[in-house]
Amino acid sequence: KPASFSGSKEWIGTFEASLVLDYLYDVPCKLVHVRGGGAELEQVAVEELHRHFEKHGSPVMMGGDRDNSSKGILGVCTGTNGSYLLVVDPHYFGSK
């Protein structure tokens, strides 16, 4: 990030969040880049998510380039009709 980022109201990205978690809390992170949904999601990300939840059980942070608000993945389910993610959006606050 440029020097002007310090003190601004800009958000950090997934990469920067992983650096902060590792530096401040000694929590190493693994970033998995998936360009889009569909086949790549099924072949790469879903397998990684299954392994993560089986080993650690903790939520997973998800970012994006088109919908770049971070979200949390709380679970993954794979069945005969494909795979599904349980996603929480911390920015959603309901209707008024």
From TrEMBL:
Residues 5-94 form the UFSP1/2/DUB catalytic domain. Coiled coil: none annotated. GO terms for molecular function: deUFMylase activity. It comes from the Eukaryota. The keyword Hydrolase applies. Keywords: Hydrolase. The keyword Hydrolase applies. Belongs to the peptidase C78 family. This is UFM1-specific peptidase 1 (Non-functional). The gene is UFSP1.
